[in-house]
Amino acid sequence: MGYETNEETCPLCGVDLQGPEVPEQSQAMYGATHFSKKIGVEVPEICDGVLYWQCPACGGRWHRFLDGVFRKMAEPYVRRGARVHGAGFEPTQRKAGGLQPLGLSRDQAHAG
Predict the structure, then answer these.
(1) Would the pTM of this model clear 0.85, i.e. be above it?
(2) Position 3 in a domain
(3) Using one digit for the tens of pLDDT, what is the confidence trace for 66-93?
(4) CA dist 41 to 17, 33, 52, 94, Å?
(5) Could you say which of 25, 58, 82, 104 would form a disulfide bridge with 108 (CB–CB 3.0 to 4.6 Å)?
(6) Residue 86 is assigned to a structural domain of this protein
(7) In terms of DSSP bridges, do strands 39-42 and 98-101 run parallel, antiparallel, or are they unpaired?
(8) Which range marks the domain in which residue 87 is found?
(9) Residues 16 and 35: beta-carbon distance below 8 Å
(10) For 48, phi and psi rounded to 5 degrees?
């Protein structure tokens, strides 16, 4: 069993998350044949990188890591439902164009 999850189907709503094909000349650099539509959510105060995944279709969240300290740290965020982050955290989402803020207002971020 590996260290990270690698679903390309949302485990909550079942939508296909496989994106377009990576150009053949770039596949070795990306280590993949296709891009992904899943959103990688970062919580900079916890780790430098994606902490958990989020579905762009249903908004559901699931763990990136199968076990270990980062899985335990992600648990409140994955379990929290509509609440994306806690006070003071500024999660970002990793997409093909780099990191982008989630763009939630303070009220939206704390609703739930």
Answers:
(1) no
(2) no
(3) 889 999 999 998 987 543 433 333 444 4
(4) 15, 22, 6, 7
(5) 104
(6) yes
(7) unpaired
(8) 39-110
(9) no
(10) -95, 90
